[in-house]
């Protein structure tokens, strides 16, 4: 449908510099915020049903997440891996690739880091750099696999990336139960990394969080400010036109797989060296899919992904305070998280409805040469013409 | 003659936009009534109202004198209104018979009574001269026969009024004649036809009456016997229409693009090329005429570097081409107006500005450091310049290109491709689906490029367009070049025959 009117509908006689295009951007920011609000309202109703006071509960939630510097640091650190996985999803999706393998790439990155540091024994800053580099490469390779399968054999990456998640998880299992198993521990876990390769901390905050934030800016820059990102986006929207325009479509798709995997692998390394220190059961579990949800809520915008990830990190940290404070299960927060996703997706879909667009476009169409609403486009042969069914 | 249908004061509003405004149309029994109008004039909307896909905002519909509310397509079929869409609604893997009975309530039996239904269809076929091979899958039929299946489909459902939406667009001249015969036999039996077409030659030939729509309103209804093509054109565009006439040139022998014995899937009649040899010189337009689906898409793809020939050679500017990739072809000065502008030419969800610089993102003009940082300001400025130059009508260059009309989309492609005076231009169906104004603009630009020394190869299924623009004409039939003809005083009959493979 044509976007032919301004946001400031009745008053504005002409489309100003921002006008309708700015409006879409504003909507894309408002929708997630409203979704979060609604999710909290509905979550509050659930808390009420449990016979507790939701206001009080949310009070505990936020003070638990942001109450003092230590808690803020913890919130940021919970958000850190989510930022990476969300960025991985955003980047791939911009090129039309739906990477659901963030979790596997994340885990494999961490495994590679662990393995290389344990076997080579490199210490200090060189150890950190080496570990992270190997993690990035491993993640990238784990992304390359489904990419090659898609390009050469046309296998759907939705399936292959998920399958590779299991492979990665089992590989990690093999690591902590056999290869690098900590003999002093009865648990299934590896030994901790050497103290000298733990990411440096600023107060209680490891620098991985800063790296994650820089990463978001970097991804934004590549996608929106470079020719490479431009081409990636063009391929994502219309691969045929990109091919006719002379873009190396297959190479770009493959690269987006690799870069996406590398970002997730980077995240795995950072989380290992900054927060977890060892591989164990449950490492990285769920981060991939949280990343998908975050990226979708943020409508694939890297900066937005970072913001939403920070918020999700906050919820994770505050959940236990809420549990202790008013005695509701921390699963309430899972409900809220899920509701945010549902509301955000529904909200974006709603914005695309013709009736809704008409509401926004209340100004008469007086610009020459603009398309009338899609329905009259039939003469062009381009709009859909439903079959006359009986 | 009795009145079959009357649409009175029909308005259809989308938001605040009127796609139809106070449109009147009446159809008599046994007439061919043409609906004439430019793109966006409201023809499709009106027909969608008639077949029950849209509910009119205002106005009423009388069917045989009785007011009816056509609440759904099913209701339209019940009344006896049937539409043959421009893009056929057939299932290719099913036979003609299966397609005809599919979803029909004519025979309420739970099982398929093949012989009984077939008998009924056979009767219709005999009565109206609709020759169809019922047991052949639709995908294996010619386009003409597929169309006859569509017509049978609506007749089988008891249609009294048939709407044919641009039915001749995909047909050969002979097939068009056949279709006209069918239309005449339908009207002689008291059925009526609403005929939608752009092609004035056909309109004047087959119509009994013509209703002209312009900007969503019905301008006038005229008897064909009392009007002529020029008057109709003028009414359609709202002012006197003057068609450009271009000089034909005989270019110097400076081949820019040569195909020498090129074959690609040579055994496919409708998707291959067989031993094609042709030359385009700098400063001339070579027109490739032919009915859609005779290898045009493959020829276009080959010249754009999207596919490589299986046999034969392509020479470009005196050098043999060894790499077949669009990238390399563009690098060597190929400009391409592709067949399907939405699918191949534009990235719909990107902005007008971004589409204008699609191939230039690493140039110093639009970025620092070969694409490391795009110069937003320079891109904007350039896009606005091009918008002015090419009369691209949009509120802003930051609007998605998808929201533009077809003609303006094509202008965006043209502006991009003709930038920097490319030595070779391939234009494939450049004006398909465009209105007269936009068509004229595109033609002017193509000829201007030719006069600037560009070697132009024009592939079009619109014979009139080929005749108008080409300095030389070749005909493509089943993937083969059937002959070459001069652009000045072209032997039209001979070319028509060649297009049919004779």
TrEMBL record, chain A:
Its predominant location is: membrane
Query: What single Pfam family name could you report for this chain, choosing any that match?
Result: BPD_transp_2
Q: Which keywords annotate this record? A: Cell membrane, Membrane, Transmembrane, Transmembrane helix
Protein topology in the membrane: Multi-pass membrane protein
Composition bias type Basic and acidic residues, residue spans: 376-390
Q: Keyword check for Signal, yes or no.
A: no
Localisation: Cell membrane
TM ranges are 26-51, 124-145, 157-176, 205-224, 252-273, 279-300, 335-353
Instruction: Report the InterPro entries cross-referenced here.
Output: ABC_transp_permease
What is this protein's name?
A: ABC transporter permease
Q: Please name the source species.
A: Kribbibacterium absianum
UniProtKB/TrEMBL annotation, chain B:
Q: Name one GO molecular function term.
A: ATP binding
InterPro entries linked: AAA+_ATPase (IPR003593), ABC_carbohydrate_import_ATPase (IPR050107), ABC_transporter-like_ATP-bd (IPR003439), ABC_transporter-like_CS (IPR017871), P-loop_NTPase (IPR027417)
> Where does the record place the ABC transporter domain?
5-240, 257-500
UniProt-listed Gene3D superfamilies: P-loop containing nucleotide triphosphate hydrolases (3.40.50.300)
Q: Does the keyword ATP-binding apply?
A: yes
Q: Which SUPFAM superfamilies match?
A: P-loop containing nucleoside triphosphate hydrolases
Q: Which UniProt keywords apply?
A: ATP-binding, Nucleotide-binding
Source domain of life: Bacteria
Is Nucleotide-binding tagged as a keyword? yes
Q: What is this protein called?
A: ABC transporter ATP-binding protein
User: Which organism encodes this protein?
Assistant: Kribbibacterium absianum
């Amino acid at each position: 449908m044509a976007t032919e009117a301004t946001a400031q509908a009745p008053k504005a006689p002409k489309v100003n510099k921002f006008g309708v295009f700015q409006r879409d951007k504003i909507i894309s920011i408002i929708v997630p915020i409203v979704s979060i609000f609604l999710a909290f309202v509905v979550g509050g109703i659930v808390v009420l049903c449990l016979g507790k006071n939701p206001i009080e509960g949310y009070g505990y939630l936020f003070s638990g997440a942001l109450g003092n510097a230590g808690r803020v640091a913890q919130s940021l650190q919970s958000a850190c891996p989510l930022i990476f996985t969300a960025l991985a999803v955003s980047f791939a999706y911009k090129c039309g690739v739906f990477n659901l393998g963030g979790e596997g790439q994340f885990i494999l990155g961490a495994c590679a880091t662990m393995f290389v540091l344990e076997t080579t024994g490199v210490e200090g800053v060189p150890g950190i750099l080496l570990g992270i580099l190997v993690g990035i490469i491993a993640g990238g390779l784990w992304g390359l696999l489904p990419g090659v399968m898609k390009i050469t054999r046309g296998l759907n990456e939705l399936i292959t990336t998920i399958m590779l998640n299991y492979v990665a998880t089992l590989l990690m299992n093999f690591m902590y139960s056999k290869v690098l198993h900590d003999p002093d521990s009865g648990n299934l876990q590896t030994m901790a990394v050497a103290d000298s390769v733990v990411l440096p901390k600023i107060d209680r905050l490891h620098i991985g969080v800063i790296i994650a934030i820089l990463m978001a800016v970097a991804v934004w820059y590549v996608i929106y400010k470079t020719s490479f990102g431009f081409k990636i986006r063009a391929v994502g929207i219309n691969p045929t036109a990109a091919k006719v325009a002379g873009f190396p479509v297959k190479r770009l798709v493959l690269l987006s797989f690799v870069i996406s995997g590398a970002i997730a692998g980077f995240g795995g390394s950072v989380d290992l060296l900054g927060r977890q220190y060892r591989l164990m059961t449950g490492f990285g579990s769920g981060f991939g899919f949280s990343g998908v949800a975050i990226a979708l809520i943020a409508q694939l915008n890297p900066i937005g992904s970072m913001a939403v990830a920070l918020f999700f990190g906050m919820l994770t940290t505050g959940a236990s305070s809420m549990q202790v404070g008013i005695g509701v299960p921390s699963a309430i927060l899972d409900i809220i998280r899920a509701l945010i996703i549902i509301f955000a997706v529904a909200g974006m879909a709603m914005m695309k409805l013709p009736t809704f667009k008409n509401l926004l476009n209340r100004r008469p169409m007086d610009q020459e040469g603009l398309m009338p609403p899609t329905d009259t486009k039939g003469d062009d042969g381009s709009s859909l013409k439903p079959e006359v069914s009986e | 003659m009795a009145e079959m249908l009357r649409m009175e004061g029909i308005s259809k509003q989308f938001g605040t936009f009127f796609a139809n405004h106070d449109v009147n149309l009446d159809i008599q029994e046994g007439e061919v009534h043409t609906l004439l109008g430019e793109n966006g004039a409201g023809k499709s909307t009106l027909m969608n109202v008639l077949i029950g896909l849209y509910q009119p905002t205002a106005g009423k519909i009388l069917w045989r004198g009785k007011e009816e509310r056509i609440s759904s397509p099913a209701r339209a079929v019940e009344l006896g209104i049937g539409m043959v869409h421009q893009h056929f609604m057939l299932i290719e893997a099913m036979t003609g018979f299966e397609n005809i009975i599919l979803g029909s309530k004519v025979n309420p039996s739970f099982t398929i009574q093949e012989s009984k239904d077939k008998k009924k269809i056979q009767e219709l076929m005999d009565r109206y001269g609709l020759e169809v091979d019922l047991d052949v899958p639709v995908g294996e039929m010619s386009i003409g026969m597929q169309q006859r299946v569509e017509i049978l489909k609506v007749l089988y459902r008891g249609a009294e009024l048939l709407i044919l939406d641009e039915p001749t667009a995909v047909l050969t001249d002979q097939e068009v004649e056949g279709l006209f015969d069918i239309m005449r036999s339908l009207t002689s039996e008291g059925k009526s036809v609403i005929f939608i077409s752009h092609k004035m030659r056909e309109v004047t030939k087959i119509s009994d009456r013509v209703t002209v729509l312009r900007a969503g309103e019905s301008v006038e209804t005229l008897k064909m016997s009392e009007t002529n093509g020029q008057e109709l054109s003028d009414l359609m565009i709202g002012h006197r229409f003057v068609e450009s006439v271009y000089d034909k040139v005989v270019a110097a022998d400076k081949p820019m693009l040569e195909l020498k014995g090129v074959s690609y899937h040579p055994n496919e009649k409708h998707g291959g090329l067989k031993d094609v040899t042709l030359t385009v010189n700098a400063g001339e337009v070579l027109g490739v005429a032919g009915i859609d689906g005779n290898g045009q898409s493959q020829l276009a793809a080959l010249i754009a570097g999207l596919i490589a020939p299986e046999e034969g050679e392509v020479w470009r500017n005196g050098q043999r081409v060894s790499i077949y990739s669009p990238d390399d072809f563009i690098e060597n000065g190929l400009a391409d107006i592709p067949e399907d502008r939405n699918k191949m030419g534009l990235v719909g969800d990107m902005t007008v500005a971004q589409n204008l610089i699609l191939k230039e993102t690493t140039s110093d003009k639009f970025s620092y450091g070969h694409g490391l940082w795009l110069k937003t300001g320079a891109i904007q400025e350039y896009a606005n310049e091009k918008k002015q130059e090419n009369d691209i009508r949009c509120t802003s260059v930051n609007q998605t290109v998808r929201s533009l009309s077809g003609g303006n989309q094509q202008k965006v492609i043209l502006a991009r491709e003709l930038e920097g005076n490319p030595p070779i231009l391939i234009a494939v169906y450049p004006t398909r689906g465009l209105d007269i104004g936009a068509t004229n603009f595109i033609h002017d630009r193509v000829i201007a490029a030719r006069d600037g020394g560009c070697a132009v190869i024009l592939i079009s299924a619109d014979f009139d367009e080929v005749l108008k623009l080409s300095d030389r004409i070749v005909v493509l039939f089943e993937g083969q070049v059937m002959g070459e003809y001069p652009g000045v005083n072209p032997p039209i009959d001979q070319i028509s025959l060649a297009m049919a493979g004779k």
